[in-house]
Every structure is written in structure tokens, then in C-alpha cells.
Write a structure and sequence with these properties.
Elements lengths: L14 H12 L7 H12 L3 H6 L13 H16 L3 H9 L2
Helix pairs in contact: 2-5
Length: about 100
């Protein structure tokens, strides 16, 4: 049986630290829930992942002068509204990313 543990919290809350601990201590497979969202946003706005990371906290002309964080939050919430609270967890499990 597969067990799934999901960390949720604001930036700096220790999500990555917790995931890395489980990876080391239990040889756990760590899936990145945000990766499919990054890929979707890149396709919608026609930008690279590198561009998104470069504008995480500063506005980007291709993103309608919004920051990557603002765009990711918007689309993440829209997808949860349309497909349910677990949309990103399910996507990560299915894609294995």
C-alpha cells in the first residue's frame, strides 16, 4: 500500500525540510506538487520555468506585471475550485513528479 504525506504551509514553513528528512530517513519518494502547476503556467503565458523563477518576487511583463508567486497562487486556487482540493496531490501522484 502506498502512503502519501503532504506538507502544506506558507513559504519558509519547513515543507522542503520535512520532505528531505523523510527522503533520507525512510528512503521516501518525494513528489513536487508545484511542478505540474509551473508547467501549466509556462504554457499559458509562453514563458520558461527559468523566467518564472527569476520573477518570483518581482513583476514580469509576460505575466501581466504580476509576480510568479501571484500567478501561481491564482492558477492553483482556480484549479482547486474547478477540480477539488486534492487536484495537485492527485496530479503529482499520477504524473510521478
Amino acid at each position: 500500500m502506498v502512503k502519501v504525506i503532504c506538507f502544506n504551509g506558507p513559504p519558509g514553513s519547513g515543507r522542503d525540510t520535512g520532505a528531505e528528512y523523510l527522503k533520507r530517513a525512510f528512503n521516501a519518494n518525494v513528489l513536487t506538487i508545484a511542478q505540474p502547476l509551473y508547467e501549466m503556467v509556462c504554457k499559458i503565458y509562453g514563458v520558461s520555468i527559468e523566467e518564472l523563477f527569476a520573477h518570483k518576487k518581482k513583476p514580469h511583463p509576460s505575466l501581466g506585471e504580476k509576480t510568479t508567486r501571484e500567478i501561481m497562487t491564482f492558477w492553483g486556487e482556480q484549479m482547486k475550485y474547478l477540480h477539488g482540493q486534492d487536484v495537485w496531490i492527485n496530479t503529482a501522484i499520477v504524473t510521478g513528479k
